[in-house]
Amino acid sequence: MIRLTCLFAATAVAALALASGASAQDGRFAVGGQLGTPGGGVSVLYSLSPNFVVRGSYDALKFDRDDSYNDVAYNAQLDFNSPGAFIDWHPTGNAFFVSAGAFFGSRDVNLDATPTTNTNIGGVVFTPAQIGNLNGKIELESTAPFVGIGYDNTFTHAGHWGFRLLAGAAFGDAPQVDLNSSGGTLSSDPTFQARLAQEEADIQNEADNYKVLPVVQVGVTYRF
User: Fold this and answer.
1) How many CB atoms lie under 10 A from the CB of residue 14?
2) CB 9 within 8 A of CB 85
3) Does the pLDDT value for residue 151 go beyond 60?
4) Which of 147, 151, 172 lies closest to 163 in space, CA to CA?
5) Whole-model pTM?
6) DSSP for residue 17
């Protein structure tokens, strides 16, 4: 799978090199912007033929949300930076297409919590003074193969402006979870550390459900 995604990336780079020398008349080069579950981003597209388009993209998503695991209420900071490389296949030469490729880059969820009441950590109740501050990270795999379907009339009509709609899924191994305590009277205590390891394992069990992430994007393009 890694070899396949590397091939997609190499193809996209080669196509963009060809596009830099394309004339305005051939209409094979386009740029665009999109919004969706990976965040907001930009794309570059090059039409290899009426049936195949190579596409490179970059999407970013950053926002904070409150999220609870067991008894602990965390502030979760999402920080996704997702370059991608894809091949879009238009089987009948019209706007409908099937897409395959991969998202790359860093996609992390940073966790932070400072309990103010007695809190269950790994099956044992501790005081706020004993716990201190909890901080951790949920780290998604850096390479996520993608498949999807969509509608894109960038190269199937005569105008400069086009419309894109894409829906699919990105796949990867289970996210990796790391959880630590600092500033508490028991932060370095072996017994508390064992309970904290259990708390980390509980979060990991929940994170294991996110091996497949839905991808939905809508955007516009401008063809040269």
Assistant:
1) 13
2) yes
3) yes
4) 151
5) 0.78
6) H
